[in-house]
Amino acid sequence: MVDRLVNSELNTRRIASVESCFGSSGVPLAIPGRVLVGEGVLTKMCRKRPKSRQFFLFNDILVYGNIVIGKKKYNKQHIMPLEEVSLESIADNQQYHNGWYIRTTTKSFVVYAATSTEKQEWMAHINKCVEDLLRKSGKKPVENHAAVWVPDAEASICMHCKKTQFTFVQRRHHCRNCGAVVCAACSTKKFLLPQQSNKAQRVCDGCYERLRFATVSGVDADVDADLDADASLRSGNNSKLNGDSSNDDDTDEDTASPPADAQHDEPRFYGDNSTLSSAHDDSTTMERGTRYGKQLTLEAGKKDEQRKQQELEQQRELRKRTEFKARPNPFK
Q: Distance between CA 82 and CA 88 in Å, rounded?
């Protein structure tokens, strides 16, 4: 799909542009054989709230960052090796649509696209890159992934003891093994999770016991932890699954998500996309034409409103001058 772009000057310029947008906050991305496959904005479910993030899909990595100035400047660059990436679609609910999991060994989270077509395009391109990469390297897909964190807003009480209510004093904590929101009393211990860090991580009491037993007996505790976590999370509603396995980019200092009426830029994918989007070509063309027509109508309306406003200002100024001239001179 992207082989013909490997040594092209166009691909080199695209990657250089991405590096320039990240500036000193990012790392060099241009290496031999690397191709920029696509780019676009997705809504990432962070610990506190959903936020817009700029994503760049390469043929070997997935890069994303915070949007400082749209299409011009990004920061807090994150790089995910595609060899570790696994995707899973999420069913729509009343609040969120067009979402899917992005899972790796160190970080997992949920993203949402603006339309179902964009979701299909993103997932198809990512999966194709992962398949091509694994086939060329001869490696097997990664089976153990980091848990997706439950967002803070989805847990008012501890998900372990079901008693402690969270307040400004009683803080929330996330189990790094299952992603559940727990209180301090239910997460007093740490355990080494080699796939996530070389330092011991905070885990809930339930995961600690399972992990400790697995270490002694040699039983794989990841499967049990995943099953228990899924059961706990799904006991409420599936919006509780919409989180992030870490809060390293969930800060309030970055730019907020754009307003609902902001114009949406569709993602761009490079290379041969005929096998991925041929079924949507007609509908996409029609949709883009409709959007363009609405945009022209909106711009024409704005210009007409500006013209009317200018005419009113001119009439007011003329009226003021006429009234001033009509006033009697008190000094005569």
A: 14
Mean predicted lDDT score pLDDT of the chain: 81
CA angle 127, 285, 40 (to 5 degrees): 40
- Write out the two tokens for 13: 């310029």
| Helix ranges, 195-280 (H) | 205-217, 221-234, 274-277
* 57: β partners: 38, 62
Q: Please, are residues 250 and 46 in contact by the beta-carbon 8 Å criterion?
A: yes
Tokens of 164: 């402690």
318 by Cβ neighbours in 10 Å (0-12 / 13-18 / 19+) ranks as exposed
| 110 within 8 A of 100, measured Cβ to Cβ | yes
Task: Give yes or no for a contact between 211 and 177, defined as CB atoms under 8 angstroms apart.
Answer: yes
Residue type, 184: A
Find out whether 77 and 26 touch, Cβ atoms under 8 Å: yes
Does pTM surpass 0.90? no
Cα atoms in the 13 Å half-sphere on the side-chain side of 108: 25
Could you give the residue ranges of the DSSP H alpha helices within 4-115? Answer: 9-22
Query: Rounded to whole angstroms, how far apart are CA atoms 56 and 20?
Result: 13
Q: Measured between alpha carbons, how far is residue 46 from residues 113, 197, 240 in Å?
A: 15, 20, 12
Lowest mean pLDDT among 73-77, 130-134, 163-167, 306-310: 306-310
Q: How many CB atoms lie within 10 A of CB 5?
A: 18
- 12 vs 18, 33, 64, 126, 179, CA distance in Å? 10, 10, 19, 20, 39
Integer Cα distance of 79 and 248 in angstroms = 13
| Neighbour tally for 78: CB within 10 Å | 17
The DSSP bridge pattern shows strands 50-58 and 36-45 to be antiparallel
- Count Cβ atoms within 10 A of the Cβ of residue 275 and give its class: 0-12 exposed, 13-18 middle, 19 or more buried: exposed
**Residue range 257-309, pLDDT digits in tens:** 454 445 678 999 997 544 444 434 444 444 454 455 555 566 666 777 777 78
